[in-house]
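job 3f2a | input accepted
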Amino acid sequence: MKRILVLAALVLISAVSCSNSVNNMETVDNDTVDDSDIQPDDDEDPSDTVPDEDKIVEDLDFESGFIALESVDYVLKNYDQNTTGKAMMWYNFQPADENPEEKPLFVFYNGGPGSASAIVFLYNTAKRTGDQAFSEDGFAENASSWTQFGNLLYVDARQTGFSYGILDDPTDNSARSSYFSASNFNVFADAADFIRVILRFMEKHPSLKSNPVILAGESYGGTRSTAILNILLNVADYAEKNRQFYDETLFNEIAAHFQKIDPSVSGMPSKDVVAKQFGRQILIQPLIAGQEQFDAEGELLEQSGSPLYIIEDETGRTFTPCGDRCDKHSNALYYVQKAGRDYYSYRRPYNWLFDYTDVGAAKMLQMPMFSEFILNDPTKIDGLYAENRGGAFRYGSTNGYSRNITADPAFENLPELDKIIMKARIDQRSAKPFSTGNLESVFGELPPYDEYFVALSYEINLTFSSAPIDHYDTINGEMFLENIRTVKTFITQAEEDIIIYSKGVPESLKSFEGVSGVTLEDNSFTVNFSDGQSVEVTFPFYPESSHSVPVNQPAKLFSDVKKWLE
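job 3f2a | predicted structure (566 res):
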């Protein structure tokens, strides 16, 4: 059963960015600074201050901007040829506190699919945090900033966050609607987007080109990491058309990257060559084994002692296992919702996580708080200005959260529980509308089909469910198991998460061909393969954490990752 998980990561180089550091800024409250303080000079063309798109960045500094993705032809699962649409991909770069040229590059993203990377960016991984636990109205310096051991690159997926699509005529309702197709939104097309962004960012920053890259994905970000790594590690096999995805221009770009950093490489790089750079991954409450993972979670949740029975004792609302009569994981989510608890954090009230993290995202959309979080001057980023967003759009036939998504025929094709999950998110947004901020006061008014920031795209959620290969496909678990034979892996184990019930991760891997068993320890699990290889996965426990571990236990996560890196 396919289901939607609602939550909440040198060929042509075209990057428009800014690296005007504001390290010495002090905390600013939204209500004490006038927007005019950061308006560009009337006589200054904002585009004049943007570096040439081919300019190499020699000095590593705080930087934000867009990386352009061209339209690309590819083949998926032996189907007819697909073609992606053009996009501008938003990124924010934060250099390591010391010797950034010598430190690894962490690439962060949230999941959805269809979610912006705002939660992982604003909540306790970056240099500054928007977590209201540390600053109710503004920002705070983050004591757990991962810049203490690496460079940080945050990327918004296509059509999410600040990333936007490009059309010849965005006023064409049909063209916008057609963009939201499986050609643009499936596991492999999504992974290809991120590979291009990562490689092009490193090409533009030669001091980082050969540094280790560590993928850090949350939720669906686990599936994204899995596909990214599988393509990179096995690009030679993909290029021989032995896999279910074929994108010749992507494979050539990967080969060109590794040939530049290792002159001994000719043709497609080997798995060993790729693993020297892409040899680690950090997965925060990830979906990595498709439907098999949810099936395993459902079985465990029905067992005595699971969180469902804790909720039952605390609320008095009876939990009724469904056995073989229904999907067990869906039944569990339905029960948690009916009991008034958040299935992303079962000890907290319904919709707690989204209500909590919306606060930080709303701060970021206020000028000049925007610059405080990205730590460079957004008024010098050409792609943010309405006058420079030619062809830009964010939505299909109608506008954003106001869209009656429940009337979409695709919604009716979803299982009942998924309808409830998505409808809950819509109801939450309707009850507590997300702030659009005041970015238009600086960058200009946008047409109704465009928007500066999109926290979650329902259209992407729906589109993924109809893709030939989606995030519930068995191939995801197969690729994950193939990857961990080569890639050192860290997975969080959050106690309060029901959407990704952590115990289901190792349990689900037992069902895959080639696995003879999985041994679970306190803070790790070991996958034993039938060919005799055994792989240990770091699996630290977070007893106070929701689906978003950095929100609840940032200091412990920081400490655990730091130790894991040693």
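job 3f2a | The first helix runs from residue 118 to 122.
job 3f2a | closed
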